[in-house]
Structure formats: C-alpha cells, structure tokens
Amino acid sequence: MILPIYGYGQPVLKKLARQVDPQHPNLKELITNMWETMYNAHGVGLAGPQVGLDLRIFLVDTEQVKDDEKLDIGIKKVFINAEILEEEGQPWSYEEGCLSIPDIRGEVERLPTIRIRYQDEHFTWFEETYSGLNARVIQHEYDHIEGVLFTEKLKPLKRRLIKKKLEMIRAGQIQADYKMRFAIRQG
Fold this sequence. Notes:
CATH topology: Peptide Deformylase
Number of domains: 1
CATH superfamily: Peptide deformylase
Strand content: 25-35%
Helix content: 25-40%
CATH class: Alpha Beta
Distance between the termini: 26 Å
Structural class: alpha+beta
Oligomer: single chain
C-alpha cells in the first residue's frame, strides 16, 4: 500500500525517532509499504518520519542509480535502530533533494565515508562501512531519524532563497507526483 509522504512542516519530521522494538506490530507490512511508497515516488531512500512514524527505520536503494552515477556499487537495505559510529574523509558537496521537500534541491557537504551499526528487518545487528553515494544516501536518511532535514545543511544564502518555497510546501500549495500530507490542511 502506498503511504502518504509527510511534507515539510509536519512535526514528525523534526522529532528524534524512537527505537523499533522487534515486536512492533505489522513491521513486515510497514517495510513492504515503505518500499512501495519510495519506488512510487522515484526515491532512493525513505525514513519512518517521512511516512508519519517517529521510528528509527529507513530504507536505501542505490542499486537503481549505480549505472547512471558509476560512483559505487549500489545497495538495497533496511536499516533499523541505526547509529552512525564514525564519519571521515574530506567533505564533498553533492546536490540533494528529498521526497518530503519536493522541487527543492541544493548542494550539501558531507564526509564521504561512514561506519554504521544497525539492525536489518530480522533484527540481526551489523556494523559496516560505506562510502560515496551509498554513504551520502544513508547519511541523508539517518538525518531524518535524528529530526534533521537536508535544507538545514544548505548554505545560508540558499536557505534564504528557498524560504518562500518551503512555506508553500508547508501550506500544501505544491503539486507532487505522489501522495503527500501537508502541515496545513487545505479547505
């Protein structure tokens, strides 16, 4: 089932997400719905807060862009209760966007290599290192479960330039190619 994606201004996007318990009801169905929602919106990642849940869960699928970007070997994974343990390397800028903030893109500086500890959908623990595009998408989705949006990492001038567009998203005065839920309900 395709879920609505919560747009900029929704309080859940700014909350620190809580741990996911192995007995969380309908977790398998939630994960299936999140994959379907992400692909329907043509995304490469999706986090719990983006579908209205303050849960430490996110999905990443960079396999679908690996041939175009030729930057990494792609990954397709579920990350539950993740914690980034280390980030390293020289900062690099790359244009990012977000399904919760349609039609806004901007250069975000991130460190290129991360070490992350997480559980998969079977609640098995892993500790892995990622770099390049894989690391960037993981960092972006991880920010969501920490209550941080990519727009907060933009340079001050860019943030000022997009302020009006962000308010339009908050008010639901935009059109997206996927189902969204906005902070301010329209008439």
